[in-house]
Amino acid sequence: MESRFAKDVLDGCTLSVRVHPGAPKNGVTGVHADALKIALTAPPVDGKANEALIAFLAHALRLPRARIALVSGLTSRAKMIRITGKSAAEVAAAFLPVETC
Q: How many domains does the chain have?
């Protein structure tokens, strides 16, 4: 399964996400501009949304948090995530089907 938001790398994959902090509920809301859109209830203050994003992904992918790392986008809504131990196809399968914008 080919995905525009997940790419294979050595020992895992990278995941491009677009975060919507302060949302009414946590969840995947679609794909936009080659990024997985994720709504989080956590506010974008003091890294709380980043922590919530890692927790959300760990739960959805059934991985320990230690296997998920924020590579870029610490203070941005657009983020790149490194996931160790899952292929891009496995990550895409966990989140698809979602609407593409």
A: 1
- Using N-to-C axis directions, what is the helix angle for 88-95 and 48-61, rounded to 10°? 100
Predicted TM-score (pTM) of the model is 0.91
The closest of 99, 15, 97, 89 to 57, measured between CA atoms, is 15
* 23: CATH: 3.30.1200.10
User: Would you say residue 21 lies in a domain?
Assistant: yes
Comparing 77 with 3, the larger pLDDT belongs to 77
Write a three-state SS string for 60-93. Answer: HHCCCHHHEEEEECCCCCEEEEEEECCCHHHHHH
In angstroms, the Cα distances linking 100 to 3, 67, 82 are: 11, 27, 22
Which range marks the domain in which residue 16 is found? 6-92
In a domain, 98, yes or no: no
